[in-house]
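About this split. The held-out portion is used to measure sequence recovery: a designer receives only the structure tokens and must propose an amino acid at every position. Recovery is the fraction of positions where the proposal matches the reference. Here is one held-out target exactly as it appears in the evaluation file.
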């Protein structure tokens, strides 16, 4: 699910809980097998996501907030709720930092 180029980058920013984000209007994405390809048309950047990252992008496109993301994903993955919530928050921060998503 990790997209950033440097592990641990922006750790202080990640302490802020995001309740809702939406993909930017300049973002196009496509599912390719289990992975996702995200195109940031403004920056000309392409990001490749694993299956979980792609699933989160799909759910964000349906308008789910972070609480709803947690509820939707918890039964599908063998992970405890606090870890899932932390992973989702980290991923959402990365989406915002890379310009893929906007905070609502």
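Reference sequence for scoring:
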């Amino acid at each position: 699910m990790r997209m950033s180029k440097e592990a641990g980058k922006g750790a202080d920013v990640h302490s802020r809980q995001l309740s809702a984000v939406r993909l930017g209007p300049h973002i196009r994405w496509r599912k390719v097998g289990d992975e996702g390809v995200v195109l940031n048309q403004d920056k000309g950047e392409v990001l490749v996501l694993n299956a979980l990252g792609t699933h989160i992008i799909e759910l964000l496109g349906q308008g789910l907030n972070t609480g709803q993301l947690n509820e939707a994903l918890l039964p599908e993955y063998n992970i405890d709720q606090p870890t899932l919530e932390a992973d989702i928050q980290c991923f959402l921060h990365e989406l915002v930092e890379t310009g893929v998503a906007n905070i609502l």
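Annotator remark: The CA atoms of residues 73 and 84 lie 8 Å apart.
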